[in-house]
Amino acid sequence: MSAIASTIAPLAPLAPAAALAARTVSAGDTAWMLAATALVLLMTPALGLFYAGLVRAKNTLNTFMMSIAALAVASVTWALVGYSLAFDKGDGFVGGLGHVLLRGVGFAPRAGTHIPQLVFFAFQATFCIVTVALVSGAVVERMRFVPLLVFSALWSLLVYAVLAHWTFGGGWLHEHGTLDFAGGVPVEMGSGFSALAAALVVGARKDYGRQALLPHNGVYVLLGAGLLWFGWFGFNGGSGFSVGRNSELAFANTLLAPSCTLLVWFLLDLLRERRVTAIGAATAIIVGCVGITPAGGYVSPAWAMALGALAALPSYAIILWRPRTRVDETLDVLAAHGAAGLFGIVFLGLVAQASWNGTANGLLYGSLHQLAWQAVAALAAPAYAFAATFLLLRAIARFAPLRASEHEQALGMDVAQHGEEAYASGEGAILLSTESGHEAPVAVAQP
Amino acid sequence: MKLVTAIVRPEKVNDVLEALYRAEVRGISMSRVQGHGGELDRVETYRGTTVKMGLSEKVRFEVAVSDDFVQRTIDAFCAGARTGEVGDGKIFVSPLEQAIRIRSGETDEGAVTPVSES
């Protein structure tokens, strides 16, 4: 069975008479996709919480705001052009401009699904948003906010939309049958290898490598990871665009794989330090979710468990090695997303099973071709993401400095960039004005 | 014997600790304090409310030293904490009447001379 035709088939698992049914909207599919979209949207503030806990207290709000920025910027760029570049018919590299400003995106079903294209657009928008937010993990605690907004807007178009077109929107990888269920290419490898480029261009934080720069709130980190996992059920479970078998398989696998990653991470921690760490556990949840992302709807639950367990190894190794280098890729987006995404997309080429996914077999079930195209994706996506992000940031740096000054970094990005603090005591604060319009300051004893 | 109290910027704490270590000053206490020494006020906005932050976060060091250690302690604080901007902090030196090490009952000079753990 040719892989080209087969990638389309799982998208219409409930179609009895394909020709007629292809143009109808399914109430059940649409209901689930509406809920799944909301689940994925939650992942962005969850990521903000996860990242905020990992930085120092004086940078909490700025770090969280980098994720909130993605909600503002990426939804708009996605509606204006991004969706069209990713999902309109174009060439193998990038989509066309037919859906610019959401032209033609309405209540008619998206080709190959039974959900309105408008719902399909919203679901895909939440992917673009969370991916833009992911990249910010590489540059927290020093990148200025306004250049970050510009970078986020351009990155969502030049990198995310292009990579999404490659595997989701009929681009060259899609045409050649590369399997990527929920975004190993655009989301995970796209963010991970862009993060590496961003860290190199923006440069290390003041005091990186000289002082210990520690997470300030492990509870935020664990809660953020938990909420991300929750949202990931919509992310993977929705990527079948239906309530069909691939979605159900992905849903169950999203439970199983990260659990196995967690267990293996515990064991690795025990072997290395004789203690299981909480920040490590939160990281393991992310790594497991990332690993199963490309494979969710294509591999059996047993293989998903193996995938989750094995995905821990490369990420664990990179997280140990990276802080000893000069590369301040601060929150290890490369290790958690780039490496685990790459592992997932290649492993999928080994263990995909047509008897589970109705689409394609991996190498262990007879298809070397499938593994080859998974490997091509694992080379091409990192190369493009790294190169494009590197050039984009270098270009932005010609117009405005990317980094805050040493003084601002010392003061903390919350006060320097936003004029707020996450943990303001309010003691000794003198009221200057309120929204009720009282301009006369209330006298407070000033020491 | 003197008690050297220094109020410094929180972002300079690591530099101060490093300078004290190089000056072989051991046995210190530090605490987070809030204070005001004439530096520019920070204006912050929360929803519609704009406030002037009159107090700044500072870190207070307290070091009890024997008399011939006083100057090098002061030098270490100055070297570690100075940025040249208003708000770098103050150092106060006050006489110390008595010092007792709780573990051994040693007093005065013996109590403020750190023991090396062996």
Describe the structure.
The complex is a heterodimer of chains A (447) and B (118). Mean pLDDT of chain A is 92; it is low at 1-20. The N and C termini of chain A lie far apart (80 Å). Helix content of chain A is 62%, strand content 1%. Chain A has one domain: Ammonium transporter fold, CATH 1.10.3430.10. By secondary structure, chain A is mostly helical. Chain B has helices at 13-22, 70-81, 109-112, and strands spanning 2-8, 29-35, 42-46, 49-53, 56-65, 89-95. Chain B has one domain (2-112): 2-Layer Sandwich (Alpha-Beta Plaits). In chain B, helix 1 runs antiparallel to helix 2. By secondary structure, chain B is an alpha+beta fold. Chain A binds chain B through residues 207, 211, 407, 410-412, 415, 419-421, 424-436, 444, 446-447, and chain B through 9, 11-12, 14, 34-36, 41-55, 83. Strand 1 (429-433) of chain A pairs antiparallel with strand 4 of chain B.
